[in-house]
Design a protein that fits this description.
single chain; alpha+beta; 2 domains; four-stranded antiparallel β-sheet; about 40% helix; binds nickel (II) ion
């Protein structure tokens, strides 16, 4: 790690006890690593709020027997071709498919893609993974 800087933090004893329990349960080796992770999480959250270029994924499960749904899902993804880096389709069983779309680009546009997919009749479950390109977390 380059340019390590130490700084002091004033914190209430109870809050620190709770933080220590928190980091123990998550198996952090020390407070510094846990704090760095929390800071990175906050910064990634900010990237999404500020419409930065982000990376992420959208995963959804649907029944491919549902009329027209497969074509509509493809049409939507083509409408957002500038965002979609890759997609993977898994046949879970005779009826159910799991598709994971990897995206990179404007967080607002990714949100629009997510909501458009989510609103489709026949989608059984959908979730979004909000992560980062990593370029601002050096
Ligand atoms: Ni399938």
């Amino acid at each position: 790690m380059a340019n390590l800087i130490r700084f002091g933090v004033s914190i209430e004893a109870t809050l620190l006890r709770n933080f220590d329990r928190f980091i123990r349960e998550r198996q952090y080796e020390n407070r510094s690593e846990a704090l760095r992770d929390l800071i990175r999480e906050a910064l990634v959250e900010e990237e999404w709020e500020k419409d930065e270029v982000i990376a992420g994924g959208i995963a959804f499960v649907y029944d491919h027997h549902h009329k027209q749904l497969v074509n509509k899902l493809l049409d939507i993804q083509h409408d957002f071709h500038d965002l979609v880096v890759s997609s993977q389709h898994v046949h879970l069983d005779h009826s159910n498919c799991l598709e994971i779309v990897i995206v990179k680009g404007s967080s607002v546009k990714v949100g629009a893609l997510y909501h458009q997919l989510k609103s489709m009749k026949g989608i059984k479950h959908i979730d979004i993974l909000k992560t980062t390109t990593g370029s601002r977390l050096k």
